[in-house]
Write a structure and sequence with these properties.
Helices cover 25% and strands 28% of the residues. It is an alpha/beta fold and 451 residues long. The site of flavin-adenine dinucleotide has 33 residues, from helix 1, strand 2, helix 2, strand 4 and helix 8.
Length: 451
């Protein structure tokens, strides 16, 4: 008789695990049942800001695989099914069929939790008003579209992190007057050091965004249940549309209630095989904690890159393979219009907080040979350990081609290289792509001589 793998959550982590386990086993060996409470599977949330901005036209193009396609592949996907409890003694889940309003139980031999994360939603008065939303699903993007169709002209984005920045760009592109309200003293304050974030603030203001830093939201003014303004300690900002982008929290309630270990950072604890502390239960994606390769700590880094890899690792191991997840560096990239923004490893502030004797060195360079048309500046900040010269992290803010240079630093960091070693690497050069000394080499060389 076939063993049964039950999956909770039908997006990146859950369906990567399902697809990988399916590739490695026949339906006679392993039955795979995936429960998803929404109507969609395998959708790219990462594309939502670009859908809102009109850069991507078709909402359906963000769906990598529909439930029907998964079913055709031998995965029994049940959408509009909410898993409400895990019974580890009976090895069973309790599932509510949201359309039939009926509950049932299903036994598992292996269980994968891929419940993702939820956007942080403070208990501000008026947060449930019409016109106040988060951008997490295709339905949220459709709601933004409806508000634009109904004539929304003034948008306030609360939070200037990755998603806030991407959404602000999108709404600006759609012709709205955009205010971004941020509690910290810089945009991307949780991502970049303040000196690097200054360039982002400058670009946002130059594009016409009313960026309000050091500004704490206290609630929303509503009229007839609709939002009309965002209230802050510095006064109100009128709004027909408010997007909240304050970061996420792992969805661990099911796991916690079942007695599955949750860590201090708030995610489900897993080993490098994606096994939880409870036999036959695995977890992957935004709901778990991961090993940080620089600090050695257990952290929550909610990114699609990790969710896909961890899901694949779990799926392989569940199907009888033997692979491990190597950990995270917090490598990430985004853009605001033409400005590319990227980071890996630790910022100077994070390195100090983690107990490193760290030094941050910033270098300005061009993305092309100085004589080549349209050469644009970029700033690279390298964080290294004083004394040893160990690379701890890097941040890049600059023009075309700047952002993906972060992957050179991520590779170096993954392999525990020193800044001097990075400075000696054989990187490519031709005038349209870089100066003869690539900005990465220049920055690493300057950093090595400052230690
Ligand atoms: P999710 O995608 O959250 O999926 C979890 C699924 O589980 C959901 O579909 C949910 O409905 C379902 N579920 C939860 N609980 C239950 C239950 N009890 N029963 C049934 N179903 C349940 N990452 C990047 O790397 N790069 C980017 O550029 C990027 N941009 C982003 C932009 C936006 C606007 C957003 C919202 C996210 C972005 N991310 C990005 C993050 C990335 O989308 C997530 O890291 C990734 O989707 C996590 O996948 P997951 O499967 O762990 O969780």
């Amino acid at each position: 008789m076939a063993r049964r793998l039950v999956i909770i959550g039908g997006d990146a982590a859950g369906m990567s695990a399902a697809a990988q386990a399916r590739r490695m086993t026949s339906t006679g060996e392993l039955e795979i049942v995936a429960f998803e409470r929404s109507t969609r599977t395998s959708y790219a949330a990462c594309g939502l800001p670009y859908l809102v901005g009109g850069f991507v036209k078709a909402p359906d193009s963000l769906v990598a695989r529909t439930p029907q396609q998964h079913r055709a592949n031998g995965i029994d996907v049940r959408t509009r099914h909410d898993v409400v409890a895990i019974d580890t003694q009976a090895s069973a889940v309790t599932v509510r069929d949201l359309d039939a309003a009926a509950e049932s139980t299903l036994r598992y031999d292996e269980l994968l939790i891929g419940t993702g994360a939820s956007g942080i939603s403070p208990p501000w008065p008026g947060i449930d008003a019409h016109g106040v939303l988060q951008l997490r699903t295709l339905d949220d993007a459709a709601q933004v579209e409806r508000l634009l169709g109904a004539g929304a002209r003034r948008a306030v984005v609360v939070g200037a992190g990755y998603i806030g920045l991407e959404v602000a760009e999108g709404l600006l592109e759609r012709g709205l007057a955009v205010t971004v309200v941020e509690r910290l003293d810089a945009p991307m304050g949780a991502v970049l050091d303040a000196d690097m974030a200054a360039g982002v603030a400058q670009a946002m203001r130059a594009a016409g965004i009313d960026l309000r830093l050091h500004t704490a939201v206290t609630g929303f003014t509503t009229v007839g249940g609709r939002v009309t303004a965002v209230e802050t300690a510095s006064g109100p900002f009128e709004a027909d549309l408010v997007l909240i982008g304050l970061g996420v929290r792992p969805n661990v309630e099911l796991a916690r209630a079942a007695g599955i270990g949750v860590g201090a950072a708030g995610g489900i604890l897993v080993d490098n095989h994606q096994r939880t502390d409870t036999p036959h239960i695995w977890a992957a994606g935004d709901c778990v904690e991961s090993h940080h390769r620089v600090t050695g700590r257990s952290v929550v880094v909610a990114l699609g890159t990790h969710a896909n890899k961890q899901g694949r690792v779990a799926g392989t191991n569940i199907a009888g393979g033997e692979v491990t997840f190597g950990g995270v560096l917090g490598t990430a990239i985004t853009r605001f219009k033409e400005l590319e923004i990227a980071r890996t490893g630790l910022t100077e502030q994070e390195a100090a907080a983690a107990g490193f004797d760290a030094i941050g060195v910033t270098t300005e360079a061009l993305n092309r040979a100085h004589y080549f048309p349209d050469a644009q500046p970029m700033k690279i900040k390298i964080v290294a350990e004083r004394g040893t010269g160990r690379l701890l992290g890097a941040q890049i803010v600059g023009g075309e081609g700047a952002g993906k240079r972060i992957d050179v630093f991520a590779t170096a960091l993954w392999n525990n290289m020193s800044v001097a070693e990075v400075g000696g690497m054989d990187l490519s050069y031709a005038p349209p792509f870089s100066p003869v000394w690539d900005p990465v080499l220049l920055a690493a060389g300057k950093s090595a001589s400052s230690i």
